Amino acid sequence: MTRPAAMAGAARTTAPVVVRSGELSKGGRRHLLSVAELGAEGIEEILEVSDAFVEVGRRSIPKVPSLRGRTVVTLFAEQSTRTRLSFETAAKRLSADVLSFSVDTSSVKKGESLRDTVETVAAMGVDAFVVRHTSAGAPAAVARWVDASVVNAGDGWHEHPTQALLDCYTIRQVLAERSGRPSQGAGVGCFVGLRVAIVGDVRHSRVARSLVLALGALGAEVTLVAPGSLLPPSLEGWPVTKVSYDLDAVLPHVDVCYLLRLQSERGAGAFLPSVREYSAWYGLTSRRAALLGDGALVMHPGPMNRGVEIADDVAALPQSLVLRQVSNGVAVRMAVLFMLLGQVGSGGAAPDLAPTLAPTPGTVPGA
Ligand code: CP
Question: Which pLDDT does position 101 carry in this prediction?
Answer without folding.
Answer: 92
